[in-house]
């Protein structure tokens, strides 16, 4: 048997196992996360330092939690200048894309003097979580901070786990500076989410928390939702590829592996009605897998959470894609734009052979923080609206209240809310008595 199973779309049991959400027993983890967060709530910075020492192996004082200007200067000196140019190019493209999403407040006057509208304002403070430790994710910094900056957020606070020596990867720091992050703190995990949600002596509480993390971070975000806003509850990364006979099996396998290498729970699904192509993609996966540094992680993801599915035709492939509602959807078909109108559920859609998923991760411009685990049925990618709030504006004139007031009274009374009705009725009565409204 190969590294990835090949199944028929008619195999209901196996197909159902792919569609089912990955369920993890999180009761014990949730209790541990809640205990960590309560300790941060109670003891603030002291808890942050203790947990950073325990989980990250970094011994930091309270004063060392915040990245200093000197550390930022050292980061700029340490990074490769060509990489810095690429980061700046990515920043420019991401910024231009998100500027197109920007909405403005609006007001609509009516002939009777009524003014209705919507006030659209940025959040005052947001916290962005960026995975760290031994890894470096400058792209995640850009994808979270830039739309917040475009929205006009007053203050952007970033948290990221330090390395064992107490430092933060220089590329992560440089990305933060380039994207306009105001403060960076060397703290990660559930304790970082707690600090952003509750506030500590060093970290001011925020209005919303965005950014991906491990299961501890996700559970922590779920626990604080309601006290602060969150973007979404992200699960393991996933890609679904729909292909016809025109697809290059080498490209398809490479794209599937680009997600499988994320972690052992990642998912890569390939849908095609071409059985020869299916076999060739399976062979390519075997071949390319042996060349990957993260081979064991990718192999586990392919074996346990991935599959090649042979369908009865392109239409069935597209229908199944909508059922999966994947984070990333690739259309490796001869006429991808002809299929686009049939896609209803996907976080990001990549059209054609030269739009592999990693272009979206790094440089295309659209956000790479996307809904996972089927939540693309009702969630959208991270965007400028994530960092804004909307207030309705209502200004009734005397004439409009006289005209519409009786209808409001009737609707309030049918709901049994007499005080609601009276709030309008006293104004109507005042008008009848000659009293100015």
TrEMBL record:
UniProt entry tagged with the keyword Cell inner membrane: no
Pathway where this protein functions: Amino-acid biosynthesis; L-histidine biosynthesis; L-histidine from 5-phospho-alpha-D-ribose 1-diphosphate: step 9/9
Record-listed substrate binding positions: 237, 259, 262, 328, 361, 415, 420
Gene3D superfamilies for this protein: 1.20.5.1300, Nitrogenase molybdenum iron protein domain
Binding site for NAD(+): 129, 191, 214
Active site, UniProt feature: 327 (proton acceptor), 328 (proton acceptor)
Keyword Amino-acid biosynthesis appears in the UniProt entry: yes
Gene Ontology MF terms: histidinol dehydrogenase activity; NAD binding; zinc ion binding
Binding site residues for Zn(2+): 259, 262, 361, 420
Pfam families: Histidinol_dh
The entry's keywords: Amino-acid biosynthesis, Histidine biosynthesis, Metal-binding, NAD, Oxidoreductase, Zinc
EC main group: oxidoreductase
Enzyme Commission identifier(s): 1.1.1.23
Reported cofactor(s): Zn(2+)
Cofactor note: Binds 1 zinc ion per subunit.
Catalytic reactions of this protein: L-histidinol + 2 NAD(+) + H2O = L-histidine + 2 NADH + 3 H(+)
Alphabetical list of CDD domains matching this protein: Histidinol_dh
InterPro entries: Ald_DH/histidinol_DH, Histidinol_DH_CS, Histidinol_DH_monofunct, Hstdl_DH
Domain of life where this protein originates: Bacteria
Function: Catalyzes the sequential NAD-dependent oxidations of L-histidinol to L-histidinaldehyde and then to L-histidine.
Alphabetical list of NCBIfam families matching this protein: hisD
Membership in a protein family: Belongs to the histidinol dehydrogenase family.
Name this protein carries in UniProt: Histidinol dehydrogenase
Organism of this sequence: Desulforamulus aeronauticus DSM 10349
């Amino acid at each position: 048997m190969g590294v990835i199973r090949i199944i028929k779309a008619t195999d209901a049991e196996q197909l159902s196992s792919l569609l089912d959400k990955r369920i993890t027993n999180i009761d014990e983890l949730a209790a541990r996360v809640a205990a960590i967060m309560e300790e941060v709530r109670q003891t603030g910075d002291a808890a942050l330092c203790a947990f950073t020492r325990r989980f990250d192996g970094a011994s930091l004082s309270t004063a060392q939690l915040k990245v200093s200007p000197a550390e930022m200067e050292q980061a700029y000196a340490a990074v490769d200048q060509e990489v810095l140019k690429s980061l700046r190019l990515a920043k420019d493209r991401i910024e231009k894309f998100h500027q197109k999403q920007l909405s403005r407040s609006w007001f609509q006057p009516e002939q009777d003097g009524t003014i209705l509208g919507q006030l659209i304002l940025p959040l005052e403070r947001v916290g962005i979580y960026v995975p760290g430790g031994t890894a470096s994710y400058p792209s995640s910094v850009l994808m979270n901070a830039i739309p917040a900056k475009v929205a006009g957020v007053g203050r952007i606070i970033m948290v990221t786990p330090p390395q064992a020596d107490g430092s933060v990867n220089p590329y992560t720091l440089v990305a933060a500076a380039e994207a306009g992050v105001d403060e960076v703190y060397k703290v990660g995990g559930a304790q970082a989410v707690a600090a952003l949600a509750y506030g500590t002596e060093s970290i001011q509480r925020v209005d919303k928390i965005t950014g991906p993390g491990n299961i501890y971070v996700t559970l922590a975000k779920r626990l604080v939702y309601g006290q602060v806003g969150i973007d979404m509850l992200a699960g393991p990364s996933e890609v679904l590829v729909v292909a016809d006979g025109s697809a290059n099996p080498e490209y398809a396998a490479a794209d599937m592996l680009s997600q499988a290498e994320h972690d052992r729970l990642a998912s890569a699904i390939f849908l095609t009605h071409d059985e020869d192509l299916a076999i060739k993609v399976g062979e390519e996966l075997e071949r390319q897998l042996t060349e990957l540094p993260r081979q064991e992680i990718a192999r586990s993801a392919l074996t346990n959470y991935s599959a090649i599915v042979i369908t009865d035709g392109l239409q069935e492939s597209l229908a199944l894609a909508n059922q999966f509602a994947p984070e990333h959807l690739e259309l490796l078909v001869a006429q991808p734009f002809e299929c686009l109108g049939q896609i209803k559920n996907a976080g990001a859609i990549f059209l054609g052979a030269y739009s592999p998923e990693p272009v979206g991760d790094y440089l295309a411009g659209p956000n790479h923080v996307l809904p996972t685990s089927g939540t693309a049925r009702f969630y959208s990618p991270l965007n400028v609206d994530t960092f804004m709030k909307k207030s309705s504006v209502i200004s009734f004139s005397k004439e409009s209240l006289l005209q519409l007031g009786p209808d409001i009274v009737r609707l309030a009374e049918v709901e049994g809310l007499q005080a609601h009705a009276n709030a309008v009725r006293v104004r109507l009565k005042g008008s009848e008595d000659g009293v100015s409204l």
